[in-house]
Amino acid sequence: VVLASLLLIQYRGSDLATTTSMLSHIAEGVDYARKHFEILSLLLISFAVSAFAMAAVYNLSPYWVPRILHADPFMWGVLGAFWGLGTIVSAWGLSFARDFRYKGWIFLLGMFGCSALLIAWGATRSLFWFAAIQFFMGGMFNAAMIAAAAVIQNLAPNEVRGRLMSLLSLNPAFM
Fold this sequence. Notes:
Layout: H1 2-8, H2 22-35, H3 37-67, H4 73-95, H5 103-123, H6 127-155, H7 158-168, H8 171-174
Helix pairs in contact: 2-3, 2-7, 3-5, 3-6, 4-6, 5-6, 6-7
């Protein structure tokens, strides 16, 4: 279905030829973010949470899940599915919010809630509670990233919006 949909798109292209480099586009996005506190804050907080909280989850899981939780590969997949289920539920829930005015608060609660759950993630030895923590961490991180994207899309002018969204999408690199 996705491939068929892509084939139906009739892209006309752009007559604008670009002579600037990719690095200059990145610099333009960074420069814009530096001058706009709200956008800079979103990027820095999301990068910090990705680099510390989410990196701990991603990098310690291969050790933690089999050795501490004594989960076999099948159970590890089930635990990962709870993370995915949390992201789906948060995206589905936010899709009903037409003009959700509290995007900034959703971002902050998601980022800090996800970070706080890292303590519970490391302290639990129960597969049940670990699955619940995975669900809420995945949901909170995803909700925060959706809210951050919405804020950037609402605040940034068309000329730099794509560059800023590209900067936001660097979060996995920090993980």
